[in-house]
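Bit of a strange request maybe. I'm writing a small parser for structure token strings and I need a real example to test against, not something I typed by hand. Could someone generate the tokens for this chain?
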Amino acid sequence: MAEIKAEPSHHHPLIISQPDISDPQKPHIKTKRLASLDIFRGLTVALMILVDDAGGEWPMIGHAPWNGCNLADFVMPFFLFIVGVAIALALKMLPIAVSLNYLFIQLFNLISLLQILVVENTEPLEAVKKVILRTLKLLFWGILLQGGFSHAPDKLTYGVDVKMIRWCGILQRIALAYLIVAMVEIFTKDAQDKNQSPGCFSIFRLYCWHWLVGACVLIIYLAIIYGTYVPDWQFTIHDKDSADFGKVFNVSCGVSGKLDPPCNAVGYVDRKVLGINHMYHHPAWRRSKVGSKHTEHLFRFEPFEPEGILSSISAILSTIIGVHFGHVLIHLKGHLARLKHWVLMGLSLLILGLTLHFTHAIPLNKQLYTFSYVCVTSGAAALVFSAIYALVDIWELTFIFLPLEWIGMNAMLVYVMAAEGIFAGFINGWFIGFKSTFSSEFGIHGRVGMLLYVIFAEILFWGLVAGIFHRFGIYWKL
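Reply from user aminoacidic:
Good idea to test on real output. This should exercise your parser:
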């Protein structure tokens, strides 16, 4: 379970907030935090709160109904990118691990292999244990918060029918990407990594295993999404408030390689593996204008899992790109060299993704987590991170972003309490109607009132709360 720990508070202009994976028997070496990464994490949490709570009044910042990319569609890839950077920084002090090449050589020598795994690599194995434990914690909190158990903030009840529980979600997707990429990072350590200072391009060769895994992920994803035959299917309306409650609808597909809402392979895989009752029943495509009037009617009820199995496999690519940026930070020592590499790669990804989208080769689609979407959002993450790094870690303008930095240092707390509405549900239990009262007191109504409420009464408020927690050295860690 997640835990809240108190730690001594010491501010550093250049800091790295990552879990310690060192051997507990060895002296603990305090690592610095990377301020720009904390601020980027805090900005992403703030964006999540903004688009979730103000997106209803400002549809242009909410999730794109199907193809396209709005502000809300950058939140998940930003989180995954940040996880990748954090993995590289957290595991950079890990001693030489079990090299895959050496494992292959020793595969038929059982005694030597056991000696390698048990005796000579206690720290890598300790890191593996911590990665697995953290993955399980993320899965637990993800199912608890988004599986249907919590009804906050609108309802004060809790509990879920296990026959209808939602298995996938934001934290579950982060858990999968974190597990895969962290394991690749641990088990592909090479003896030459420690002493080389690679240039801008040789760093790709230095971590070729990561890109090989990324290529395999992309090939598997593209093969399934374009090669899987999607048959006709049906679903039942479970919304008791709907006039169609209990009715069964048939959806005609019988195609393969389609990327439209009802007949894509992403939804088909989730229906077969997860079960249709365990998928998300309020997809963003309900606002889509594609299809006939009949299919538009169906779109309002068809379940679809935006954080499903196949799309989460594709999401691993965002974390692999993030881990590369962490490697650049470790190996390239000059600020200018780092920024050149980051900006060049970010622009390249943006151009590639936009080209694929506007040539109609592969559309931008967050629901399907298409390759063009990976490129555009990862490129945007690269440029935003580069800008924050220049402002904060080079020019030392940290004070401008202090609320975001505090949120980033206690991201799990703010995510649970604010983004998932747990604190709002608690407040509603005592004083219902706070939002309308806030607006009327200051003469603010409608869209502007909601926007100001979210900025000041939620984002800034939680920034200050996180700042108080930071002052006392209290952090919610997984």
